[in-house]
Amino acid sequence: MAVVPVIPVMIPDLGEEEAQAAAEAVRSGWVAQGPRVARFEQEFAAAVGAGHGVAVSSCTTGLHLALVLLDVGPGDEVIVPSLSFIATANAVRYVGATPVFADVELATGNVTVETVDAVRTPRTRAVIAVHQGGVPFDTVALRKAADDWGIGLVEDAACAAGSTAYGAPAGTGARVAAWSFHPRKLITTGEGGMVTVDSPEAAARLKRLREHGMNVSAADRHASKQPVLEAYLETAFNYRMTDIQAAVGLVQLGKLAGLVAQRRELAARYQRLLSDVNGLIPVTDPAYGQTNYQSFWVLLTPAYRRARDEVLSELAAKGVSARRGIMAAHLEPAYADVTPCPLPVTERITRESLILPLHHRLTEADQDHIVGVLRELATR
């Protein structure tokens, strides 16, 4: 039997330049958090329009620190979309608060002012809004609403590097945003994340929180020519990034604009090819911004006449490594003890959507094959 070549759903764009940067960090002798991390923080913050960047070990730890920064804790409620990777909801439990699930809008997969307001209570202390799959949420509307309500807004920008809202990078103007550099994202450090803020005081506290609460960083201590006696100002965490990771991240950051442009071209071609396939709705840009197409998903309607899992199986048999759509946290065993309000749009998207391959090595021939399988399934 002939082996069917597999078109992967995602491939990180890593090469010799990243390998050399990592090797240089190793040869330097400074492999823990140090000067490369500091440079990566500055350059990433500039790229997303933020005042300060604080590198961390993952976006999940970044979300945790964001809630600590806002002094969210036991007795508080934090509104989150169920339609998100489970880390979004988990971060709320890390601080002892209660996650409250909000529904999303069908077109973007994002929470809106209306879906958040529908579940807001006097105990609501914050909301975590996700730029889902790189599709930006309406930053102007939701930031204003959060201010009017007197609650904190944490932006889960795990997938949003390179996306824009109202003509600016998705992180511009965010009170606090958390970013991911997991290999499924456009740019990667293997594992790792970043928290961005505009306030220098917030940045200083975040840097203490990621490093055991020390009032002087280990890098500054080692760089000093005089003995430094540090103090530990509060109970905190070990959420640091290494200089090896940051070295890779600096190379990756230089590729971001090109990767976004390439993915948008490939996404536009998918949209053209799928435009006459009855029953499929591809993800598109919202009116107020542009997505980086970190994920390219399609929603199946009843007119398609095929169940999502059947489509995934058929694609796999033809060598296409697609994925189910974005998960719904409230349907997972970890949140079986939570009784959410009705979430009809969330449940429809998680049940009826799938993610198609999109990466820098995807060819037009690959796309033609993928769309051909979807077209065939729609007609037989």
UniProtKB/TrEMBL annotation:
Keywords: Aminotransferase, Pyridoxal phosphate, Transferase. SUPFAM superfamilies: PLP-dependent transferases (SSF53383). It comes from the Bacteria. One of its GO terms (biological process) is polysaccharide biosynthetic process. The modification N6-(pyridoxal phosphate)lysine is found at residue 185. It is an enzyme of class 2 (transferase). GO terms for molecular function: GDP-4-dehydro-6-deoxy-D-mannose-4-aminotransferase activity; pyridoxal phosphate binding. Coiled coil: none annotated. Its EC number is 2.6.1.102. The active site is at residue 185. InterPro entries: DegT/StrS_aminotransferase, PyrdxlP-dep_Trfase, PyrdxlP-dep_Trfase_major, PyrdxlP-dep_Trfase_small. Its cofactor is pyridoxal 5'-phosphate. PANTHER family: DTDP-4-AMINO-4,6-DIDEOXYGALACTOSE TRANSAMINASE, TRANSAMINASE. Belongs to the DegT/DnrJ/EryC1 family. This is Perosamine synthetase.
